[in-house]
Amino acid sequence: MDFELGFGAGVQRIAVPEKNLLGVLMPNEVKRELVGEAEVRRALESPIGSPRLRDIVKPGEKIAVVTSDLTRPMPTYKVMPALLDELYAAGVRPEDVTLVFALGSHRAQTGEERRRLAGERAYSEIRCIDSDPDDFVHMGVTSRGTPVDIFTPVARADRRICLGNIEFHYFAGYSGGAKALMPGVSTRAAIQANHSRMVEDTSRAGLLEGNNVRADIEEAGALVGIDFIVNVVLDEHKEIIRAVAGDVTQAHRAGCAFLDTLYLKKIASRADIVVVSQGGAPKDLNLYQTQKALDNAKHAVKKGGTVILVGSCKEGYGERVFSQWISEAPDAHSLIERVERDFQLGGHKAAAIAMVLENAKVVLVSELDDDTVRGAFLTPAGSAQEALDAALAEYGPEASVLVMPYGGSTLPVAEEE
């Protein structure tokens, strides 16, 4: 069978022999009614666990709307028109609304990038800014010891509205909800304290209850105060097919439940070879982001098998500490030992890659040069087909192959486990 895998703005094509194909993890079929902006408007009109936003905000209040940066597929430009209409219906003035792009530990964005993300209407009507981890207000400490240090314009606002898309997250369970604040508009020290719990057994994709990373995020959100959220679930074409709005916890949980019906995938068994893509831009901008697809793929590959990771990574490794840890490591296993004794944000993703390498070989198809790929303890390949052909030759004619075209979204669960 022939497949196309997202690769930056283009695709990588592979042909998998029918006899070897164990399965293709595509999103489940779900009932679709409204999509895009119409679905956002429906959610705003029917909030979960909360009054309508227009009944919460008041004229003269300063409103901070926190949304994702360019490393996330969140279609802020499709949400903002309906959200602005709702705010204006309450008498809020455009000059009192600020759209904040939550950078977390990511790079600053250009004005043109902010314009594209916000959409022309929002960019022309309200202030649109990046968060700044050096400009913050200390708002307390969680029970788990995480400092709650929040970007000043968000901390000082009268009302905070958090936007986001809901996906599986490899140690916070799911994205979305209070995650817009922690780590979105937090300091590096705060993010590091929260993310240090990623090594715990309960810090894994698809788990909310008992997940200390998620609990810490939501405790931080409660200390700051989140008045309203609008979260969306996207299909494989990045279209909004479900929106949830309202209470930061109740609405988020409803969105997570819908995500499970769409992207949680049961598989009969693990495969010898897993071919996985993030789905293309912007999710495969760098190795730091592309790692998310690898982390989902680890649940589908046999011990001793191979993961073929397909991602452009045109901006390189993508994060300073991540790059530093990789360059300083004598071997992959040392990264796991290092994160256990000295957790550092950025280094944690290097360790996450190393944890996959404990059980499987990882071949990377990217725009990186071969030495850079080998420097990250991965095996370079010129194309997805080349990598697949080599893996089939290695594992023999009966080798099983699983294809994950949207690996950052789909979460495999082996029935045998």
Overview of the structural elements:
- With 417 residues, the protein is α/β, with parallel strands linked by helices.
- It has two domains: 176 residues, Alpha-Beta Complex (2-enoyl-CoA Hydratase, Chain A, domain 1), CATH 3.90.226.30; 170 residues, LarA, N-terminal domain (Rossmann fold, 3-Layer(aba) Sandwich).
- It is built from 14 helices and 20 strands.
- The chain has a six-stranded parallel beta sheet. A six-stranded mixed beta sheet has the order 6-5-4-9-12-13, sandwiched between helices. Strands 1-2 form a two-stranded antiparallel ribbon.
- Helix 9 runs parallel beside helix 12.
Low-pLDDT stretches = none
Q: What is the helix content?
A: 25-40%
Report the count of strand segments.
Answer: 20
Placed side by side, the strands forming the largest sheet appear as: 3-19-15-16-17-18
